């Protein structure tokens, strides 16, 4: 919602590792482009209350109030009994769909030049339900939970999204030949939901086949929206990120009914943290997805063009892309190209 000053308040979670550095680039570029946004920075360092990981109430309140957040990578402290903080955030705000566009960047050479994939990953259940136990010594069981409610919600979102972005074809990616009940349910709900979207074509493909085909030639997938259960989406979207130049370039949006959190696909990159070497493009493109989601499209287009121009010029790019520029120098070059 716009404030009386005509600006939108957005929650900013800078995150760990390279998080503060790449967040600074986003802030600098937004200021230079005069984006009508005010950042509300919050800390989400987890607190362990009664053995349960929770995020600070102020952070929850801020995201709930603003309904939109940009988030840097979060490292999950190891061995303190915390579950993944990313997972905690998704559950706290019921962010049921993870949208991952994967688009070639003109001027940055990769084996394929025309990749324009759209993946939607179920974000709340499946293999990530965290239900695991020892049956007897040496035998463990992990439960993949698939529910009608969560499947229908993400599938409806996928069909609507396909319509909205002008790619009126949805393909469910599954393994229902093996997981007959769980993926079978996901698939049959997909067929049901497709009936409510007569203008959107629907089909389905086995995950293994999809992987083989996409790495052999991704272009036949450009006109479709791929939707799938949680773990398949995790793996397939990293694979697709590899097709366009890696983790420094891929954005994502976690979408819920009440709020949405946009974030880079990559982690906190502790190996290069604090050195000014990180590529802020993935977080920047996430912030552009966020602006589009909010309807602030003119600023989004302008920043995106400046990013693509800077990458295509290739003079001021970061080390992961084969350049020598520091994070701040790259941001400076983007600002010049605005
Ligand atoms: P985490 O535990 O937070 O996921 P990680 O050790 O898995 O951290 P990632 O962040 O997933 O590290 O990164 C994997 C590799 O990719 C690292 O070598 C990292 O330096 C590199 N990398 C990731 N993001 C970026 C980025 N934005 N710019 C440059 N290099 C990056
Ligand atoms: Mg990682």
Automatic annotation (TrEMBL):
InterPro entries: IsoCit/isopropylmalate_DH_CS, Isocitrate_DH_NAD, IsoPropMal-DH-like_dom. This is Isocitrate dehydrogenase [NAD] subunit 2, mitochondrial. GO terms for molecular function: isocitrate dehydrogenase (NAD+) activity; magnesium ion binding; NAD binding. The keyword Metal-binding applies. Belongs to the isocitrate and isopropylmalate dehydrogenases family. PANTHER family: DECARBOXYLATING DEHYDROGENASES-ISOCITRATE, ISOPROPYLMALATE, TARTRATE, ISOCITRATE DEHYDROGENASE [NAD] SUBUNIT ALPHA, MITOCHONDRIAL. It is an enzyme of class 1 (oxidoreductase). Octamer of two non-identical subunits IDH1 and IDH2. GO terms for cellular component: mitochondrion. Keywords: Magnesium, Metal-binding, NAD, Oxidoreductase, Transit peptide. One of its GO terms (biological process) is isocitrate metabolic process. It comes from the Eukaryota. The keyword NAD applies. It comes from Friedmanniomyces simplex. It catalyses: D-threo-isocitrate + NAD(+) = 2-oxoglutarate + CO2 + NADH.
């Amino acid at each position: 919602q716009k404030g009386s000053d005509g600006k939108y308040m957005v929650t900013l979670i800078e995150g760990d590792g390279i998080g503060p550095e790449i967040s600074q680039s986003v802030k600098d570029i937004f200021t230079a482009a005069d984006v009508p946004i005010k950042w509300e920075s919050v800390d989400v360092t987890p607190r362990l209350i009664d053995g349960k990981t929770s995020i600070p109430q102020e952070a929850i309140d801020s995201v709930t109030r603003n309904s939109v957040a940009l988030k840097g990578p979060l490292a999950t402290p190891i061995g303190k009994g915390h579950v993944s903080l990313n997972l905690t955030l998704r559950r706290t705000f019921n962010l049921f769909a993870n949208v991952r566009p994967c688009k070639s960047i003109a001027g940055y050479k990769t084996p394929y030049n025309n990749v324009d994939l759209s993946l939607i990953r179920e974000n709340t259940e499946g293999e990530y339900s965290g239900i695991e136990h020892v049956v007897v010594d040496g035998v463990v069981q992990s439960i993949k939970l698939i529910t009608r409610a969560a499947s229908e919600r993400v599938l409806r979102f996928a069909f609507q999204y396909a319509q909205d972005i002008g790619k009126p074809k949805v393909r469910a990616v599954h393994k229902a030949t093996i997981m007959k009940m769980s993926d079978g349910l996901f698939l049959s709900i997909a067929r049901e939901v497709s009936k409510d979207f007569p203008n959107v074509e629907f089909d389905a493909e086995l995950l293994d086949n999809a992987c083989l085909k996409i790495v052999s030639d991704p272009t036949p997938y450009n006109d479709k929206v791929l939707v799938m259960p949680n773990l398949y989406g995790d793996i397939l979207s990293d694979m697709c990120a590899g097709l366009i130049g890696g983790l420094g370039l891929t954005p994502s949006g976690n979408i819920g009914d009440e709020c949405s959190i946009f974030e880079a696909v990559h982690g906190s990159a502790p190996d290069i943290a604090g050195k000014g070497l990180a590529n802020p493009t993935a977080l920047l493109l996430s912030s552009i997805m966020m602006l589009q989601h909010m309807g602030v499209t003119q600023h989004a287009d302008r920043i995106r063009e400046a990013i693509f121009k800077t990458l295509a010029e290739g003079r001021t790019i970061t080390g992961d892309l084969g350049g020598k520029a520091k994070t701040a120098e790259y941001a400076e070059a983007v600002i010049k190209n605005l």
